[in-house]
Design brief:
Elements lengths: L6 E2 L1 H15 L1 E5 L3 E5 L5 E6 L2 E7 L5 E5 L6 E4 L1 H7 E6 L5 E5 L2 E6 L2 H7 L4 E5 L5 E5 L3 E5 L7 E3 L1 H5 L2 E3 L3
Parallel strand pairs: 1-11
Antiparallel strand pairs: 2-10, 2-15, 3-6, 3-9, 4-5, 6-7, 8-9, 10-13, 11-12, 13-14
Length: 170
């Protein structure tokens, strides 16, 4: 990581960004279906978006590899309990993958100059992911928090957010 790019901790996100998400966030649902398969313990999953490598994570026992059906087809790990609460199985795709419908909603805000000022960072910065690796973020991306818990915040790249989520209007 270049020396001039800031690293934002999870604690800072929860303390500074979560109040903004609660106050200003739009309610979205994930409409884009996903492919998923059981992860192999110790497997390294590299998440690549249109912006390039986003992060990498090592699978624990019971994790699920999720592949978004976006242009980038980014893959990431989700623990079994979270996956079961957020996705409903539709059908088998092949010997490895199954198709799932997403369920649930999030609150989200676009990372703007106001948000970077709140964090004290430049337009491009890094987050410390819960699994201990850095994750790139930039103005235009989104911070999201799952409803109803609002117990975590993660970043979704702008292009993938737009290909995956839609504003709930009801």
């Amino acid at each position: 990581m270049p020396a001039d790019i800031s690293l934002v901790t999870r604690e800072t996100l929860m303390g500074r960004v979560l109040p903004a998400v609660r106050a200003e966030g739009g309610r979205y649902c994930k409409y884009q279906r996903v492919h998923a398969r059981p992860a192999i313990k110790g497997e390294v999953v590299i998440s690549v978006t249109e912006d390039g490598e986003e992060t990498r994570n090592t699978a624990a026992a019971g994790d699920v590899v999720v592949r978004n059906l976006t242009e980038a087809q980014e893959e990431y790990l989700v623990d079994a309990a979270t996956f079961a609460a957020r996705y409903r199985e539709l059908k088998k795709v092949d010997e490895l993958w199954k198709l799932y419908d997403p369920i649930g909603e999030i609150l989200a805000i676009e990372i703007s100059q106001d948000v970077t000022s709140l964090l004290g960072v430049a337009e491009e910065f890094y987050l410390m992911a819960p699994w201990g690796t850095r994750q790139k973020a930039t103005v235009g991306d989104f911070f999201v928090a799952p409803l109803p818990e609002l117990d975590k915040i993660y970043r979704v790249a702008k292009s993938e957010f737009e290909q995956t989520y839609e504003l709930v209007t009801e």
